[in-house]
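Quick one: structure tokens for this chain, please?
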Amino acid sequence: MSDTPKPASGVNVARLTFTEKFRLQTWLMGIIAFAVVLFLLVQAKFILIALAIAIILFSLTSDAINSISRLQIGQFRIANWLASIAAVVLIASGLLTLAGLVISQINTVLSTTLSYTEDAQRAIAQVFSWMGEDVEESVLQTVRSIEISGYLRQAAGQAGTILSQVVLIILFVGFLFAERVWFNTKLENLMSDPAQARRVSHIINSIIRRVNRYLLVKTLISTLTGFLIFMLLSVFNLQFAAAMGLLTFVLNFIPSVGSIVATLVVTLVAYIQVPEPQTAVLIFVLAGMTQFLLGNVLDPMLMGKTLRLSSFGIIISLAFWGAVWGVPGMFLAVPFMVAVMIVCSHIPAARPVAILLSREGLPEEELPFQSFQDGPMTPDEAERQYRRVVGAE
């Protein structure tokens, strides 16, 4: 009788060993899958960046097209296909205009940068003059050792890449609008369950709504900030006012870091042209106040609680996507983070990730009172439905 427990103990040990092996294999497969996905993200970044931007532009204009197609003027109603064509034409015109403006400003800056090279090197070295003449001279020699012409050629090459990227974005947007009529049908057939399809549609609409609100507010704030920086440099009769205004507009889409970099670049450009420290300090203070008031006062008022993202999570997302896709990845870091947080908040197993990405540990902005079934829901039913969605029950 004393020997009877031994086989059971052996079975438990074997079962435990099998569980540990399975868990180890799962972790290894996850690491391998992450490495493969990361490799593909880096290798196909040109196409993937264009596709991500195209999807964002498509989501921004899709709701507007649906509203326009429902309008009726007398007996005339705008057809859906006509509204889609008009949207593609407007998006293409806006992107080509913006690309032309960016390329022209890059060419303007590149054509005049060489004449300011010596002044720029001297100005950067003078910043360290308070540390002694030896330090200032060492910094000057270090700055002069940098091959400016190589960076200028690289910047010129990037300017040429912008146009090809814009053309690819326009093509993607056009095909997305051509397929938009069949999205709901494809989703229902893919899910094979109307309730599940409505749930996925609710998640997608939540992502689109929050990302659209974020981008619209950021566009408004960035446009106003860029215009004020342009006016500030124009008042002091400095060159590159338009280029600095455009640079400020672009960099303000990068949260936290972009406004700081824009302010420092504007101050450096002003200091190179006007070697008086008082003028540079004044421009730094005025540009910093503009960024602070618009970015930390007006921006939160307009944004409200749309994002509720963790500040530390935003920095991690900026670092990751910046390392993978460079500057375009930093622009897309926040929309990607919003999408990941919303998707994870609706998956019980992944909800801890959503809690970590949210600001207060509350990733849900509002209860999903939209029913997954036909017909209205009472508040108690909606609360129970919400708990089932997020895994609280």
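The first helix runs from residue 5 to 43.
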